[in-house]
Specification:
- The protein is α+β, with helices and mostly antiparallel strands.
- It contains 13 helices and 14 strands.
- The strands form 3 sheets. A 6-stranded mixed beta sheet has the order 3-4-2-1-14-13. A 6-stranded mixed beta sheet has the order 5-6-7-10-12-11.
- The radius of gyration is 27 Å and the shape is elongated.
- The termini are far apart.
- It holds the Pfam family Exo_endo_phos.
- It comes from Streptomyces telluris.
- One of its GO terms (molecular function) is endonuclease activity.
């Protein structure tokens, strides 16, 4: 009886013993010297990924604007980290896991600050901007959706039928001006409205003084030329880059201390080619947004190319608005003058 009892107890205890043995076997596998020899290719890929993010400014633009293309979608390079992590675990490679620290630390350093909610209460001036899409089938509904943000100033780009937007916004905004394919609508008086030459040959940018209760604010509305990704030419952005330089010069010469830029820049804050603009202004989304605030394409936003940038005032909050019939999402921000 005693012997039978001992044997039965041994079988019942096989579960815990098996679990312990399994854990020990797993630990023994990771103590094996081979864990440092395996996965060297994965480790090399992890290092390359980290260096690509860390040294993205060193990528040349001479060949297909490779640098700007990489910087446009730079946050998405982080998707390689979990893929390499899973492969390193499957391969049981300690070397690859340690190498992954480089891209992880680099990505967190570049974009970790955007993951937190930096919105605050307060502010006294709200603005919104939207590329409405030249082929928008319902301009009136799009205009009303942007106005529903409560913005004091609304900027619209890619206007081909401005009269329909003017009619839809007339009840909310008493002051407006359309220059070429861009327009500004304001609850406050507009002065010194004029087109801005961004070296295109037609008007896709304007400048206006908005007379707010807190004083004058210079507002720029701009739609930078489109960029294309072509197999035989890379990231074609030459015209946009020239327009960015021209707009940057105009903003640098602006006499007003308080400046807001609203528009579709066809580029992100990371894109070096927009430095003539971004070096002078502060991103409302970066300073007071929640997350990345991607605005394009509306069906699956992958990049924030629609920007609200300020100088001489403090962003309080920034957000994207619900989708309209455009291929861009509208974006809005509230600032403190």
């Amino acid at each position: 009886m005693a012997q039978a009892y001992m044997q039965e107890t041994g079988r019942d205890g096989a579960g815990p013993e098996g679990t312990g043995s399994g854990a020990r076997r797993l630990m023994d596998r990771w103590r094996d010297r081979d864990v440092w020899r395996r996965g060297l290719v994965l480790a090399a890929l992890a290092v390359l990924l980290g260096l690509l993010m860390l040294l993205h400014t060193q990528l040349p633009n001479r060949v297909g604007n490779l640098g700007s293309l990489t910087e446009t979608f730079l946050p998405w390079l982080g998707l390689g980290i979990p893929v390499l992590f899973v492969l390193a675990i499957v391969r049981r490679s300690a070397t690859a896991l340690i190498a992954l620290l480089l891209p992880v630390v680099t990505w967190v350093n570049l974009f970790g600050g955007l993951l937190s909610d930096k919105t605050a209460k307060g502010g006294n001036f709200t603005v919104a901007t939207h590329n409405v899409n030249a082929e928008n089938p319902d301009p009136a509904a799009t205009a009303r959706a942007v106005a529903a943000s409560g913005a004091d100033v609304v900027a619209l780009e890619e206007l081909t039928n401005a009269s329909r937007y003017e009619k839809a916004l007339a009840g909310t905004y008493k002051h407006h001006s359309v220059q070429g394919t861009v327009g500004i609508w304001s609850k406050y008086p507009l002065e010194l409205v004029q087109p801005v030459d961004i070296r295109l040959g037609w008007v896709r940018a304007l400048r206006a003084t908005v007379r707010t209760p807190q004083g004058p604010v210079a507002v720029y509305v701009a739609h930078m030329p489109s960029v294309r990704v072509k197999f035989n030419a890379g990231f074609t952005a030459g015209q946009r880059d020239r327009s960015a330089e021209a707009l940057g010069r105009a903003i640098a010469q602006e006499p007003e201390k308080r400046v807001i830029l609203l528009g579709d820049l066809n580029g992100t804050m990371n894109d070096r080619s927009l430095a003539p603009i971004t070096s002078q202004l502060r991103s409302a989304q970066g300073a007071a947004g929640d997350g990345f605030g991607f605005s394009w394409p509306a069906s699956f936003p992958m990049a924030r190319i629609d920007q609200i940038m300020v100088r001489g005032m403090d962003p309080v909050s920034a957000w994207t608005l619900p989708a309209t019939k455009s291929d861009h999402l509208p974006v809005a921000a509230r600032v403190r003058i």
